[in-house]
Specification:
single chain, 424 residues, alpha+beta, Beta-Lactamase, Phosphatase 2c, domain 1, 6-stranded antiparallel β-sheet, globular
Length: 424
Amino acid sequence: MLARMATRDVNLAKLLIAAEDASPAAAVFAATQELRRVLATGEVKFLIADAGGNALIDHLDDAVREDLNSTLPGSAWRNQRLELDGEFRRAYVPVTVRGDALGVLAVELPDDSSWTWPGGLSEPVVLHELVAEQLSAIAHALGYIVIANQRNTDVYQTAMRSTPFELAMEIQRRLLPAAFVCEGGSFTLAAWLEPSASAGGDTFDYVASSDRLTASLTDAVGHDVAAALLATLTVNTLRNARRSGATLVEQAEAAHQAMLTHAQDGQFVTGILFEVDLSTIHGGAQKPAATPPEAGASLRLINAGHPGGLLLRRGKVTTVAPAGSPPFGIGPGGFKQYELRLLPGDRLLLMTDGMFERSAAAFDLPGFLRDTADRHPRNVAQDLSRAFLAATGGTIKDDAALMLLEWHGGTTSRQTVAGADAGP
């Protein structure tokens, strides 16, 4: 018979009650202490991923940091798998919700038979399968506790900040969706923003409704707070139009009219709006449709004065959706809508013009997209940002934002494990 940890089940309802009974700022700590009490573990910590994508930080002690690229906790986060450290008797479990990797749960394992370590340098730690499943389920639940409670406290947002935010960046970050990654059965969407020293103008947004995935990538002219305010006007105009049931063209027209009405002379915003038809996708299965699944999904797109996108299909990269309309706030309006067909396995990369700085002219974007086809879009988005920074010498003159959409389609068999995409 297995010893204590392997035979004691954590009651997730009691875990949630423990979090709810505490203040929002202490909710995650209360949940980890309930976990520690029931499983008789040692120390339990939640390490939150920082906003820069470089480290995992103890959400209660910012002096405790783990590099994302060279440590076991970082490996757990990047590879979305439980990692074990026999020497220090710890398990590191990804805390992830719909592909958005929030951080890692660090658990000091009890001295019982739930795990074994032969002790040799080449011998891996072995954790009992039921215990590993239990820890993964607990970490998944912890992700929802973080999401629910960060609505009511700044503790988690503050813990994510490796450096203070300037006012323009504060405004800019509040415009972005709460999650930079979304796995939605038939698709995975990942985005990233690399702000410049005078951040403020670049934004991205997305929402998945019952019948469509709608997203935008915008770039407001200028820098600092002026650009942030212009971005605020644009993003919220698009959201208001979308939530009012406007079509993609009507959303573009609304953004254009908002610029003409409220922006100053010479101010404008470039952007790409797109929506993917999800009406034939339900629960990961394809409903009967007039066209076979191989015909793909319909993606409608408007490019208002923005750089075109790159489409990766079966190892080949092509340029798609060039600018067919002027930016929002310039000219009489009238927006041209493109239509693309997405096939299972396609990846669509969209970027703001900051990704095309002269200092990064030698950077091979198509080659990078091809070479990273086997990586999760979440990792590709962050790795692309790091490679871009390396190519520019670490200093950029303009914000650089990107959005990567991978279409899996209704014919692709996919599963999620503890909030992360387990692949086909």
